[in-house]
Amino acid sequence: KTRLPDSPVPTVSQYACQRRTTLDNPNKVLTDALEVLVENCEFNDSMGPCSGFRRAASVLKSLTTALSCLQDTAGLPCLGEESKTIIEEIIDCGSSSRVEDILSDERYQTLKLFTSVFGVGPKTAEKWYRRGLRSLEQVYSDSSLHFNRMQTAGFIYYEDISKPVTVAEARALGCIIEETASYYSSGVSISLTGGFRRGKQFGHDVDFILTVPEPGKEDGLLPAVIDTLRSQGILLYSDFQESTFDLNKLPSRRFEAMDHFQKCFLILKLRAGLVEGQQVDPGCRRDWRAVRVDLVAPPAERYAFCLLGWSGSTQFERDLRRFARLERGMLLDNHALYDKTTNTFLQAKTEEDIFAHLGLDYIEPWQRNA
Ligand code: DGT
Ligand code: MG
Fold first, then answer.
1. Burial (CB count <10 Å: 0-12, 13-18, 19+), residue 254
2. Which ipTM did the prediction report?
3. How many CB atoms lie within 10 A of CB 203?
4. Domains assigned to the chain
5. Burial profile 213-236: b = 16 or more Cβ within 10 angstroms, e = fewer
6. Pocket (CB within 6 angstroms of ligand 1)
7. What spacing in Å lies between the alpha carbon of 232 and ligand 1's midpoint?
8. pTM (predicted TM-score)
9. What is the pLDDT of residues 97-134, one digit of tens each?
């Protein structure tokens, strides 16, 4: 008698790069709660528990149905006791006392407010909190504080850049950047990356990768783009970072470190008339808004690594690197993939090439919302 093979039990991987995570999240109530704990850990600089809650939230985001009881979590990876307690509380009572306590905590609320300013990280926010400051008005009018250029722009354009950027606005910006870059070279290619590439309808900024086919020609690209934006009168702020990229350097082990490609963090003036479907309100005191835009210009041969690294999500990126290191003995970052067994750099023209080198099924950008 032939026996049917046991149907394999579908298992969820501990790595986000082996899961498909769309923007449909039936467990949003749970993941939002876990992300409050993540944020609170980040404010307290306690990285250990932080990654536990991050991974737990990310696993739940990959599920296609809502959890209805704690037993539904059986077999799921990355759910520690603390995360399970939170999940159970919310399923049973609708909320978690630990999360509610954090949300109503003055320090948490203040640090969240202060870090919402462009250029203000947890360290600066903490410093201001310790001085007894509690509102942005108090901070801004405190004459003993010194703000750097980024923070000053963050305060000036606070209202605009706190407002989510829409897909239509991202597209309009893409047209502006494309035209601006074409004055430098007709061969420039521009790719929308970050959250919008993952299919998000809103973002906190718009991320673009710019490349030129001629090796080395990318060096002058962003300075030229910035000059043109300035002469068009739409450059409100720019922070240009020269490339420190070295072809032979091994991929970085630290995820938090920024990559070494030439890049710039901008605030641009986006006119309402340029955005499809957006009416210019005649009663409005101005017909434009300020938007945060990031541009990065890698050498063309590193485009695939840069695209994969900037497409996110942040948790997907962390897990890709962790998977490469722990499961494959390889080092991956935004610049390169290095095989420690053979001591060689692995080349890639496309993201598919990188997934193949890692022995991973290809995950589409819209499935990387881990
Ligand atoms: P958004 O802009 O809030 O809608 O969301 P994203 O996903 O576009 O996030 P964003 O713009 O902060 O960053 C773009 C991508 O860059 C992100 O998806 C992953 C990568 N990334 C973000 N932060 C870091 C970091 O600290 N280190 C490294 N290596 N990459 C990062
Ligand atoms: Mg973004």
1. exposed
2. 0.93
3. 19
4. 16-102 (1.10.150.110), 106-156 (1.10.150.20), 165-301 (3.30.460.10), 308-367 (3.30.210.10)
5. eeeebbeebbbebbebbeeeebbb
6. 194-195, 200, 203-205, 207, 255-256, 259, 310, 312-314, 317, 334
7. 28
8. 0.95
9. 999 999 999 999 999 999 999 999 999 999 999 999 99
